[in-house]
Structure formats: C-alpha cells, structure tokens
Design brief:
- The complex is a heterodimer of chains A (258) and B (261).
- Helices cover 83% and strands 0% of the residues of chain A.
- Chain A has 258 residues and is mainly alpha-helical.
- Chain A folds into 2 domains: 36 residues; 219 residues, MetI-like fold (Orthogonal Bundle), CATH 1.10.3720.10.
- Chain A is globular, with a radius of gyration of 23 Å.
- Chain B has 261 residues and is an alpha/beta fold.
- Chain B has 8 helices and 10 strands.
- In chain B, helix 2 packs across helix 3, helix 2 packs parallel to helix 4 and helix 3 packs across helix 4.
- The longest helix of chain B is centred in the C-terminal third of the chain and has 18 residues.
- Classes of the chains: A mainly alpha (258), B alpha/beta (261).
- At the A-B interface, helix 7 and helix 8 of A face strand 6 and helix 2 of B.
C-alpha cells in the first residue's frame, strides 16, 4: 500500500508542477506578454513539426526531430573532438608536475571563454560554418573532461600505486593496468559534464552560423516572427539535453560499478 | 652476514606542525626461511618499518641489506601484504594475482603463467571465487587474495603489515591457520607486523618487541621454543608458550607510551 501511494505521489506531483507552469505561461501570454503565444496556440502552430517529426520542405523548414538530428550529429562531432583532445591533456596534467605547471594557467585562462567569442575565430580559421561550429563546441566542451581527468589521476589512492611500485610495473603497464582504470569514474563524470556543455553550445553555434538544426531553426523563426516555434525549439533543446544527460548518467553508473 | 640485515634504521616525518621522530635506530636480522614477527603498540611505527624495508619510503639513516644486496627502492623480491588489502577493485581475483605472476615471470609463456596464477589462487582456497571482483568478497577472502598476490611475487622476504587486524576474531583465526599451513609447505621468509601477541607466538620463530614511539626501537628478539607443525589448541597450555608470552608482555609493559594507558 505504502509503495502504491508513493508511486501515485511520484506521478501526480510532477504533473501538478507541469500544470502550474502551463497556467503561469497562459496567464503571462494573456496579460503582460501579449506577443508570447499561449500553450494552445504553440501547439496549434507546432503540431505538424511534432506529429510529422521528419518532414522536409526546405533547408530550414523541417520536422523537429530531423532538425534535432542535425544538431545531434554536430554535437557528436564536437563532443568526440573534445574527448579526443581533453582526455590526453587531462592525463598529462594529472601525471606530470611540469606539464601541470606549464599548462594549468592556460587551461584556467581558456576555460571561462564563451562560445560566442570562439565562433568568429573558428570562422576566421576554417572559412566555413560547419567546421567552425564543431571547433567551437569542442573548445568549449573539453574543459570538464580535462579538469576531471586531471583530478581523477591525482586522487588515485597511494595504495594502488604502491602495488604497482612493489611489482616494478613498466610505465606503460602502470598506466594501463592501474592509473587509467583507477581514474575512469572521474573521467566519465567529466564526459557527462562535457556533453552537457556541448549541447549548450550548439544553439549559440547554429544561431551565429545559420546552419540547419534546432538552434538555427530557432533563430530563423525569431526573424520570421513565428514565436511559437521558438518555444517549440526551446522545449526540444531541453528534452534532448535531458535525454543526453540521463544516457551519460547510465554509462557513468556502469563505469563506477566496474 | 644474515639473509636480511637491518642496521640503525631511522625515520623522521616532517609535517607543518613539526617533526615526528618515528623510528630511532631499528636493528633486525632474519635468516633465510625464518618467520619473524614484530609486535608493538598501534602507532608505534610498525607500518613505517615495513614501508622502509619494502623500499616505499627512504630512511633518514641506516642500511637494509637483503641477500648481500643493499635495498634501494621497491621491488617484488620484497613482496608486501598490505594492511588494507590494496586489491585493485577493477580486477578479478585471478587478475589481481596474475598481475604479480606476470610481473615476476616475464620469461614464462602464457600457459605456464596461467597455471601459476591458478595455483596461487587455489593455495589460499579461493578457486571458487577466481572470477569474482574484490567487492563481492568478504574481508577474509580479500585478505586471502592479498596473501596469494604477495606469495605470487616469489619474494625473498614477504612483508606482512598487520594483515589480519581488520578481520573479526573467527576469520582471523582461520587465516592464521591458513598462513601456518602455507608456511609449513613453502618455508617462505616472512616478517609479520602485528599488535597481537598470541598471533605472533602462534606463527613466528622469533619475535621482536617494539617500544612505543616516538623514536621506536626493537627490543632483543625472543625465541619461540615451540615445535612445528604447530596446532593452535595445544599451544596456550605449553610452558614454552607461557614463557614467550610473559617475556613479550613484560617488555611491552616497560616500554608503553607515557601518555597512554
């Protein structure tokens, strides 16, 4: 009995929360923000994008899942590049005092730079919007991987390292058998945070480059004054971001369980 | 010259709050195939002594010579069974032991190394748990893996740092019996660090009592005149047992920490 009641609560309360948000949204759209489409109008104007999520009428007029797919592919490229760069840098920062002294200030300096600042630089370097977007995503998303990997390596228990020292393991075996597996939980926490950042950056990157995707669509619909599609895009971005975070959370939990 | 000879070993830790004199000139000798115990209070510096002999720490003064070669840095010829087991949690029982087997037998082919690994796992009665990971094992089973890994290093001397202190009394007795049996079969040279006088007498040929720190030193070794093979339940009544126990307890009482009990 207690468990059924708990389940009912767990279902009911989030629904109530959602209802509350919809009520506030409706009231706002009727009173102080008259340009804001109401929930009903948003649905009416967006239903084709949701019910036929893969249609394609033109470059920027496509079903919402098709647009999300373009964005995801772009994020996947940027995220992969971020891991490819960030993981080895993180291990080097954690393993070598000299490397840490040389590059940690640079890492701390580059970390807070906004994607909006990197993107024009990417456009200058690559001349095309697609690689510039991937470059920006990678540069912004790699820092949690770098920092968590370095922290993970530095917090490996001395006991594990002593086992390797007593066995006189080679540097390579020390790395592959002890250091990498011992720091893996931290590394994957870094990966999850990096993926979250990559998804944050995608919107800005697509807005500025005007490439097809959820962010590009959002910006185009703003310029075309179709405000309900801005809301559709925002909701899609949130849903995909949540799904990505949960997915990485599952992978992370598996790694932690060993 | 003895097989293992430790002379005038000193170690001081420097911390922001001042210096702590841990070992104040430790002397210890060990013959090949001998089982020696070091008994002392918790916090006296026993783990520091093991770490120095293992080469994991550098002494401030003194020498350690094993089999005519001075000790510099760690190496598998001084195998260690750590107090906190120190098993690698991402590896199975087999892989933990194989790490040691592979490290000290680079010349053997894969099949021979696998046979050796299985032999050491079976030696500590863990064959049924071969493919389990440490978190699936009880404390006693974990420490058996650590013992198997220590023996698998084929050490000239096996250093055991309070190996059973984290276990409950019944499990501890089982592991002591296991160690007694294995030592009887293999005659590995062992230094056992413990704070349990009865454990020391049951297992060791000679016992060094350690004074309480700071600046701990070892007292003269006490011979345990008990015949082998030893059987636990016959021991405590024998006069030799009583004599050894009395000698150790008298020494430790005289050397107990001033601020303590």
């Amino acid at each position: 009995m207690a468990t059924t009641r708990a389940t009912a609560r767990n279902l009911l309360l989030p629904c109530l929360g959602l209802l509350g948000v919809l009520v506030v949204w409706t009231v706002l759209s009727q009173t102080i923000a008259r340009d804001l489409p109401s929930p009903a109008r948003t649905w009416e104007e967006s239903r084709r994008y949701i019910l036929e999520p893969f249609f394609k009428d033109g470059e920027m007029n496509q079903g919402i899942l098709r647009l999300a797919f373009y964005s995801l592919v772009r994020v996947a490229k940027g995220f992969a590049l971020a891991l490819l760069l960030g993981t080895p840098i993180g291990f080097l920062l954690g393993l070598s005092r000299g490397f840490h002294q040389a590059f940690d200030p640079i890492v701390q300096f580059l970390r807070p730079i906004s994607p909006l600042a990197w993107l024009p630089l990417g456009l200058v370097i690559f001349q095309r919007s697609e690689p510039a977007a991937v470059f920006t995503i990678a540069l912004c998303a790699m820092w949690p991987t770098v920092i968590n990997t370095a922290v993970g390596v530095r917090s490996i228990s001395q006991d594990y390292l002593n086992v390797g020292r007593v066995l006189k393991l080679s540097r390579f075996k020390m790395l592959t058998r002890i250091i990498v597996p011992a720091s893996l939980p931290y590394v994957f926490t870094g990966y999850r945070l990096s993926l979250g950042l990559a998804w944050l950056v995608i919107v800005a990157a697509e807005m500025l480059t005007g490439t097809p995707g959820v962010g590009g669509f959002l910006w185009q619909e703003y310029n075309s004054l179709v405000y309900s599609h801005i809301i559709l895009s925002v909701i899609t971005i949130g849903a995909v971001g949540l799904a990505l975070d949960r997915l990485m959370g599952l992978i992370e939990a598996r790694v932690r369980a060993g | 010259m003895a097989y293992l000879e430790v002379r005038g070993l000193r170690k001081t830790y420097v911390t922001p709050r001042g210096t702590t004199d841990v070992l104040g000139g430790v002397d210890l000798t060990l013959d090949e195939g001998e089982f020696v115990a070091v008994v002392g209070y918790s916090g006296a510096g026993k783990t520091t002594l093991v770490s120095l002999i293992a080469g994991l720490l550098e002494p401030d003064a003194g020498t350690i010579v094993l089999d005519d070669a001075p000790v510099r840095g760690p190496g598998p010829e001084r195998g260690v069974v750590f107090q906190q087991y120190s098993l690698l949690p991402w590896m199975t029982v087999y892989e933990n032991v194989a790490l040691a087997v592979d490290a000290v037998n680079p010349g053997l082919d894969a099949a021979a190394r696998r046979r050796l690994t299985e032999e050491f796992v079976a030696l500590v009665n863990l064959a049924p748990a071969t493919w389990k990971r440490p978190r699936e094992l009880s404390g006693g089973m974990r420490q058996r893996v650590a013992v198997a890994r220590g023996l698998a290093m084929r050490p000239k001397v096996l250093l055991m740092d309070e190996p059973f202190s984290a276990l409950d009394a019944l499990t501890r007795a089982t592991l002591q019996d296991l160690l007694l049996r294995i030592w009887g079969e293999r005659r590995t040279t062992v230094i056992l660090i413990t704070n349990d006088v009865d454990e020391a007498i049951l297992l060791a040929d000679r016992i060094y009592p350690m004074t309480a720190g700071p600046g701990a030193v070892l007292g003269p070794a006490i011979e345990v005149g008990l015949p082998r093979p030893r059987v636990r339940r016959h021991l405590s009544l024998s006069p030799a047992y009583q004599k050894a126990r009395q000698a150790i307890v008298d020494f430790l009482k005289a050397a107990r920490p001033r601020a303590g009990v």
